Amino acid sequence: xxxxxxxxxxxxxxxxxxxxxxxxxxxxxxxxxxxxxxxxxxxxxxxxxxxxxxxxxxxxxxxxxxxxxxxxxxxxxxxxxxxxxxxxxxxxxxxxxxxxxxxxxxxxxxx
Length: 111
Known about the structure:
With 111 residues, the chain is an alpha+beta fold. Helices cover 19% and strands 7% of the residues. It contains two helices and four strands, in the order E-E-H-E-E-H.
């Protein structure tokens, strides 16, 4: 289970400090799509009301103005774009030789 620490920068509590309103945290999740989905859901639960700058890192999908998601790293997407879907956010469904949907469910999308 994830837990989050209270952060203070320049005597201002997170997220009031401007330094924390741009992408600063990168989380690499091992264990496959299911584990990545659990982490994304938990991040959304804790940070869904935090307003970000709405500035997406390259090849990322927007969840909220503060949360973005992607698979792989930028260098691989530039050097080996054939391994990724057209958007370069998610791996090709056949990357391992068998068909699998690697896309995560956006928890901000109404069900």
